[in-house]
Design goal:
The protein has four helices and nine strands, in the order H-H-H-E-E-E-E-E-E-H-E-E-E. It has 212 residues and is an alpha+beta fold.
């Protein structure tokens, strides 16, 4: 930009007058602190499961009030331009009890492995850092309670390479494990709908969310 500014300024001096305005450099974006990011994540996860309130634009709010409604109520019964403007954004998630055998959970990344310093002298890590690692919910310290899980668009089958398929699979939706019952080999899962998770594969990340 400095070269362009100098070049245009030189052209202005040699030819017809040209006014060149130099714009100060942008100071850059502001770094967000971790506390703000955690609040934003928690807000988005809650909206995913429970929906978010609808903020009416002024024109629609005025039409709704004139139709006999009160602000803060739903939009049932309101028609604008012949089309119903009713929008219910309140969602109703389900709390389901799932067996350990019904939902297979994987974790990807270097956090899944022991540090290199914990390996025997001269030994090297056999698995890559992008290698999916299967989680055993019956073992303590797995860190999957209140963690957002991504339910993948595949089911585990003996004849398929599940580890390769995980990296290419699409995400169908998200669930949260709210509690684990190791004595009965089951956990309680918050899901957006009442669909069955039997035979599904899920991927755990690092986003935590606990219902207030």
């Amino acid at each position: 930009m400095q070269k362009i500014f100098s070049s245009e300024e030189a052209k202005g001096q040699s030819q017809r007058p040209i006014t060149v305005l130099k714009i100060p450099r942008s100071p850059g974006v502001v770094d967000l602190d971790s506390a703000y990011c955690e609040r934003a994540q928690a807000h988005q996860v809650k909206n995913y499961f429970y929906g978010s309130p609808l903020q009416l634009p002024p024109e629609l709010a005025a039409a709704f009030t004139s139709a006999g409604g009160r602000e803060g109520q739903g939009l049932s019964g309101l028609n604008l331009g012949g089309e119903a403007a009713a929008m219910d954004l309140a969602l109703s998630p389900h709390s389901s009890v799932v067996s350990f055998d019904d939902l297979t959970i994987y974790r990807i990344g270097q956090d899944s492995f022991a540090p290199s310093s914990a390996l025997p002298i001269g030994a090297s890590r056999a698995l890559g850092e992008m290698q999916p690692v299967k989680i055993d919910p019956s073992q303590p310290g797995q860190g999957i309670v209140n963690i957002v899980l991504a339910v993948l668009s595949l089911t585990e089958a003996p004849e398929m390479d599940i580890e390769e398929a995980i990296l290419d699979a699409d995400v169908l939706g998200f669930v949260v494990i709210t509690s684990i019952d190791t004595e009965n080999n089951r956990f309680t899962v918050l899901v957006p709908s009442a669909a069955s998770l039997a035979g599904r594969v899920a991927l755990t990340g690092s986003i935590q969310w606990q219902e207030a």
